[in-house]
Specification:
The protein contains nine helices and 29 strands. By secondary structure, it is of the alpha+beta class. It has three domains: about 160 residues, Sandwich (Jelly Rolls), CATH 2.60.120; about 350 residues, Alkaline Phosphatase, subunit A; about 80 residues, no CATH class. The strands form seven sheets. The protein has a ten-stranded mixed β-sheet with strand order 7-6-5-4-8-1-11-12-2-13, sandwiched between helices. It has a six-stranded antiparallel β-sheet with strand order 21-20-22-27-24-25, with no helix packed on it. A four-stranded antiparallel β-sheet has the order 15-16-17-18, covered by helices on one side. InterPro entries: Alkaline_phosphatase_core_sf (IPR017850), GAG_Ulvan_Degrading_Sulfatases (IPR052701), PA14/GLEYA (IPR037524), PA14_dom (IPR011658), Sulfatase_N (IPR000917).
């Protein structure tokens, strides 16, 4: 029978550790609380806006015959930071949005590939993390992660969606629930130009528990979301000025139906101009007038552009006007200095219009910028997304952040600015240091996996060998400054193509096998991707059955590393991000029965244990964890067992994983109240329940 390994082991103090010896992250610890109020956070996410659609990133310097301007976003970039190497988790919306909200990359996400409308897993989200830190939270716009409807719907459909936004940490929701509803941008109107019945009829629109589409006549969603965001921000600022807020503003444009507004953007900006909330049925906003789908910006007409080109440029310009309006609202409310605003997109540019008999191609304005690839590609044009960060009191004007980063980093970043720790499940690192230009930071785990049919578009400005190249199973890893990418994977051992993006952003020169250095790098990439992800039965991959590679053999000594940090936490935190005094770290030998521990006192703490286990052979192993307090376990960088969210001390959590023969690193993090927590972790080879590999088998590298 497995035993509870208990509190304060009778242990031998070997040494205070040099944390670099075992590969821990560098961590800065705050010696005292920041006296300033926690900042507000706004995350603006566009739908299918390409890296090349921003003036400051591509349009302004483009030599392409057709281009447009984004003056408000350019101003935001000049006043803040450009994150020039920021990546979405997958080149399509559902997995990208799920990874963003959950703070995990696609190797750990419960929503993968094309799983639109699948329920967002019930775990920590951006909203729960910030709500726990005292924030008021809201989502305005497109959601698409609600899950199926079950049972009687007489009490309202919102109560039947298992992952409705208000069940995932958001206090307020105003927008489209379903993915497909966000394809149309006039929720209350018929659109006779649509290419199918689904793209011609009104859509449901929800405000918390009420469906309100019939109140939204002639409301264009970019305007509607902007007006409600301004209203919500103003109310939070004036009515509850002691609590910070987090707003996730998810525009559904410029994707899908290329619909345009009813009228020009109202004059002025901010509290007394621009888009305004009116709040009357049939006139919810001040642009709910005139004819739907009729307005084009004058600068986009009379240039011999096609109808769809005028439409697309108008949609982007409307987003640009809206962002400028929002930033001015923050200034008018005098909260701009203490508000972090991030602007990004869920994936690369699309190539559809949903109009009858006419389509749209991102070649019109080179929406993919200087890269190859579009939406659904893992070439740079499909996954590198336009990203800006604006925080007047903290981000120096004109900052250029070229460090690679990805959506799951925002959970760690927002927790950092909220002066709390992200949960241990988070795969991200805080971007505060790099985007404020203050210091280096821990490297992001940039990782993409995605599967879809079809091929890369055959555009003339794409490298010839990529045109019409089959997609299939695809995978991307950033490692040591290089991009590894695999497309149409059929062999689990298929090599990565390796690119130096700094000098070859268009991915024209594959460096794989060009020298011993890249032969070694290839093996490192092959090993690393297997050490940082877990298979998902709903999105099977060719490499799912590959055993996780073991680590190189080094001299070991029996024992386990235990680190302790004081502090009270609502969940198992990422240990390296704890905002407290540096933790103690000691090496302990053996895992004997619990001794007396009166010297520990009654303070709340978080414990981290790091140890290495030797697997006797390649094979599938069963791990089982039970703990008296919330706990979390990783093997290498992969999530092994999550016993944190909805923790139940009476329940065992178990998993199976294929591991290669040899040494594997395990990290166990858990909360504790009044002493060290009670826990046990067991490991058995499949079919052998008698030999617990964790029973005295822990080792660590010799100092």
């Amino acid at each position: 029978m497995p035993r509870f390994y208990a509190s304060q082991f009778a242990c031998l103090l070997i040494a205070v550790l040099n944390l670099h010896l075992i590969g821990l992250n560098d961590t800065g610890y705050a010696a005292s609380p920041d006296p300033k109020p926690a900042p507000n956070v706004i995350f603006i996410l566009c739908d299918d806006l390409g890296w090349g659609d921003l003036g400051v990133l591509h349009q302004n310097e483009s030599t392409h015959p057709k281009k447009f301007a984004t003056p408000a976003l350019d101003a935001m970039a000049r006043e803040g930071a450009q994150l020039r190497n920021h990546y979405c988790p997958a080149p399509v919306c559902a997995p990208s949005r799920a990874s963003l909200l959950l703070g995990v990359h696609q190797g750990h996400c419960g929503v993968r590939d094309n799983q639109f409308d699948k329920a967002l897993p019930d775990n920590h989200t951006l909203a729960t993390v910030l709500k726990t830190a005292g924030y008021r939270t809201a989502i305005i716009g497109k959601y698409g992660l609600q899950g199926g409807v079950k049972g009687d719907t007489s009490s309202g459909l919102s109560q039947r969606w298992s992952a409705y936004p208000t069940k995932r940490g958001f206090d307020d929701f105003f927008g489209y629930v379903r993915h497909v509803d966000g394809h149309l941008h006039y929720p209350a109107e018929d659109w006779p130009l649509g290419n199918s019945e689904n793209h011609r009829t009104p859509k449901e629109f929800w405000h918390n528990d009420q469906e309100i589409s019939q109140q939204l006549g002639r409301c264009y969603t970019t305007d509607l979301f902007t007006a409600y965001a301004k209203k919500w921000i103003t109310e939070r600022s004036r009515d509850d000025n002691t609590a910070p807020f987090f707003l996730y503003l998810a525009y559904d444009t410029p994707h899908a139906a290329l619909q345009v507004p009813t009228m020009e953007y109202p004059s002025g900006q901010g509290l007394n101009g621009g888009i305004q909330w009116v709040g009357k049925d049939g006139e919810m906003i001040n642009t709910a007038h005139g004819t739907i789908d009729s307005f084009r910006y004058p600068e986009h007409t009379g240039k011999e552009w096609s109808d769809v080109e005028e439409r697309f440029a108008t949609m982007v310009k409307r987003i640009d006007d809206s962002v400028g309006d929002l930033l001015q609202t923050l200034r008018d409310l005098k909260i701009d200095e203490n508000t972090l605003v991030v602007f990004s997109s869920d994936n690369g540019p699309h190539h559809e219009s949903y109009l009858k008999d006419v389509n749209y191609a991102p070649t019109s304005f080179q929406s993919y910028g200087p890269f190859d690839g579009t939406k659904r590609d893992t070439w740079e044009g499909g996954i590198r997304v336009p990203t800006l960060a604006w925080w007047p009191s903290q981000i120096p004007a004109g900052t250029i952040d070229r460090t690679p980063s990805q959506f799951h980093d925002w959970m760690a970043t927002f927790a950092d600015v909220a002066r709390t720790s992200p949960p241990a499940v988070c795969d991200g690192v805080s971007l505060v240091r790099s985007m404020t230009g203050n210091a280096d930071r821990s490297a992001s785990k940039v990782y993409v996996e995605y599967s879809v049919g079809g091929s890369t578009q055959p555009y003339d400005d794409f490298e010839k060998r990529k045109r019409k190249r089959k997609r299939g199973q695809m995978q991307v890893l950033m490692h040591k400054g290089y991009k590894g990418v695999r497309v149409n994977i059929t062999d689990p051992n298929a090599p990565f193509e390796i690119y130096d993006l700094e000098n070859d952003p268009s991915e024209t020169k594959n460096l794989a096998d060009t020298s011993d250095e890249f032969v070694k790098l290839q093996q490192e990439m092959q090993d690393r991707v297997l050490r940082m992800r877990r298979p998902n039965e709903t999105a099977k991959r060719p490499y799912d059955q590959m055993p996780v590679p073991s680590l190189p053999a080094v001299p070991m000594t029996p024992g386990i590393i235990r680190s302790v940090a004081k502090g009270s936490f609502d969940c198992v935190p990422d240990f390296d991000s704890i905002r407290s005094q540096p933790p103690s770290a000691v090496i302990i030998k053996g895992i004997p029965n619990r001794p007396a521990e009166s010297h520990l006192g009654n303070e709340d703490r978080v414990y981290r244990y790091i140890g290495f286990l030797d697997m006797p052979a390649d094979g599938e192993y069963r791990f089982e964890l039970q703990s008296s307090t919330p706990s979390f376990v990783r093997v290498h960088d992969a999530i092994l067992i999550d016993n944190d969210f909805h923790h139940d001390a009476s329940q065992k959590r178990s998993t199976r994983i294929r591991l290669a023969e040899g040494r594997h690193r395990f990290t166990i993090t858990m909360l504790a109240k009044q002493g060290e927590p009670m826990w046990y972790l067991t490991c058995h080879a499949e079919g052998d329940s008698s030999n617990d590999l964790t029973d005295g088998g822990w080792g660590i590298p010799k100092p």
